[in-house]
Amino acid sequence: MNDTFSITWGGNTFVGQQPEKCPLCNVTIHTGLPITYRGFQVVFCCPKCDELFIGYYFPTEEVEQFVQETYSLKLEALRPHKIYLRDVSEIIKEISPNFVSIYSEAFDAKEMGLNQICGVGFRKAVEFLIKDYAKQNTNTDEGKKDIENLPAASVVNNYIADGRIQEIANRTLWIGNDETHYLRKWTEHDVDDLIALIRLTIHWIEMEVLSKKYVTEMPKGKSPTKGGG
Q1: Domain shared by 98 and 187, yes or no
Q2: Strands 70-79 and 52-59, sheet pairing
Q3: Domain end point (choices 53, 79, 105)
Q4: pTM listed for this prediction
Q5: Same structural domain for residues 186 and 147?
């Protein structure tokens, strides 16, 4: 757990956690210390890149007047922020470079506190991943064109054979659609569930690609050496 800091304001003490990573160099912070604060805006200095950035905090308690002595603070956003590509496998990078870019921008939006738009970005990212993956497994130009024009859910159901990918990708789209529509159907699920489902979709795609790779490279009845298990 990262170190804490405290702010004295209005006769009360507010305690918060330091950021886990610098938003400018993406290095984990172990010794970053607040330099000064104004209200609940705390200035940090990254011990790695020496750059300054601001953490925006708010009290976790919803009260009209501060009547206690100590309150906890929750980190809402870090600014300024540099966009960097998320660490995904070479398999996913090769299947859909556009997914990696959109997925990274959506994550950056979330970390900047842009909670109303980051879900839209995640929804767009998963559509690129699904369609690019389906096109990779389709040999005809007609099929590829069909994939480009169909809704993402139809692509999942008609062009992706692996049942595990189908099950998770469909649910990813359900939550993703909630992030783009006026009314939510899955009211007990949010953008964090969407991120978890995207990661599961990535996992099953990677497993399917790797499984095909090793089955192709190591066919039954063909052994490079005699004996064996």
Answers
A1: yes
A2: antiparallel
A3: 79
A4: 0.67
A5: yes
What are the tokens at 120? 């839209």
- CA angle 135/201/196 to nearest 5° reads 145
Same domain, 94 and 203: yes
Cis peptide before 80 (omega within 30 of 0): yes
Q: pLDDT-based confidence at 14, cuts 50/70/90?
A: confident
Answer yes or no: are the C-beta atoms of 122 and 103 closer than 8 Å: yes
Closest CA to 15 of 75, 63, 94: 75
On whether residue 68 sits in a domain, the answer given is yes
Q: How many structural domains is the chain composed of?
A: 2
Identify which has the larger pLDDT, 105 or 4: 105
Q: 94 and 41 in one domain?
A: no
Cα gap 110→87, rounded to integer Å: 16
What Cα–Cα distance (Å) separates residue 62 from each residue in 57, 67, 78?
14, 12, 22
Residue 115: which domain range? Answer: 90-217
The helix/strand/coil state of 169 is helix
- The pLDDT, as a whole number, for residue 63 is 46
DSSP string, 71-127: EEEEEEEEES---------HHHHHH-HHHHHHHHHHHHHHHTT-TTTHHHHHHHHHH
